[in-house]
Specification:
Elements: H1 2-17, E1 30-40, E2 47-51, E3 56-60, H2 64-69, E4 82-89, E5 96-104, E6 107-110
Parallel strand pairs: 3-5
Antiparallel strand pairs: 1-2, 1-4, 2-3, 4-5, 5-6
Pfam family, one: DUF6152
Keywords: Signal
Protein name: DUF6152 family protein
Amino acid sequence: MKRWFLLAALVATSASAHHGWSEYNADKPLTLSGTIEESGYMQPHGFVRLKTADKTWMVVLAPPGRMENRGLPKENLAVGTQASVYGYPHRSNPTELRAERITVKDKTTELR
């Protein structure tokens, strides 16, 4: 019984840590271009902080395994690298974007 309870608690914790995609507005896609100021290649999703002409965006990427399988290694997301992303803005956070694709070093990677 204790083991089942522990498993249920772990699943609930993992689910609450993962956000739903309904938080992003697919009706208003954006294309952003700028410089990577920070990047993370971790679960459940990688990210880059992308400095554009008017602000810095938190760009949510795909899980690391998917990015690696599609030809986007961690090294390509280095600080100072120019990147362009296409994706959907967060409905309540005006500086967050869920990326559908990212272009780095003239190579576009589909993330979804």
